[in-house]
């Protein structure tokens, strides 16, 4: 993607206005060695993390409840399909109490509703009410807009490869070190 442009036709830049070097964006169709990929990632990952932190530093206040990035994660999963609180905790890799608190906040603003699982009354099911889907989608679109815009620039195959690579990276970063 040498010479890549933003949606408005400008070259990409850091939020502080500095230009992103073309070599950090070069993801052309040519093959890239592991070392070249590593070099590019070492340049890009800190920038991505700074951008994500900056994004999460701006919580959103709605009806007296401050919603942050973790609320967005819960909401995105619940919007996809109803889930139990326990499943949400597992998928987000946080404890049950944390997810329960996030769900309570989302319930206070009307984004989700909780109900007992008819098959197992001990389980609490979380879902987005049908009358709130448009509002939730709008809020999520704002919260995830940079990620969505980036993914829209990729083909379906490229998106699948990117997500697969991120899953591999996450697995490697969180794997036991095995005495290394």
Describe how the helices and strands are arranged.
Elements: H1 22-25, H2 34-56, E1 60-62, E2 65-67, H3 69-80, E3 83-84, H4 85-92, H5 96-108, E4 113-117, E5 120-127, H6 133-152, H7 156-174
Antiparallel strand pairs: 1-2, 3-5, 4-5
Would you write up a description of this structure?
This protein has 7 helices and 5 strands. By secondary structure, the protein is mostly helical. It has 2 domains: 1-58, no CATH class; 62-174, Winged helix-like DNA-binding domain superfamily/Winged helix DNA-binding domain (Arc Repressor Mutant, subunit A), CATH 1.10.10.10. The strands form 2 sheets. A 3-stranded antiparallel beta sheet has the order 3-5-4. It has a two-stranded antiparallel ribbon with strand order 1-2. A hairpin with a 2-residue loop joins strand 4 (113-117) and strand 5. It is globular, with a radius of gyration of 19 Å. The two termini are 36 Å apart. The relative contact order is 0.08.
Major sheet characteristics: 3 strands, antiparallel
Could you state the CATH homologous superfamily of the largest domain? Winged helix-like DNA-binding domain superfamily/Winged helix DNA-binding domain
**Arithmetic mean pLDDT:** 79
* Helix count, DSSP H or I runs of 4 or more residues: 7
| Overall CATH architecture of the largest domain | Orthogonal Bundle
Gross morphology: globular
**Termini separation (Å)?**
36 Å
**Count of individual domains:** 2
How much beta, percentage-wise? 5-15%
The total count of strands amounts to 5
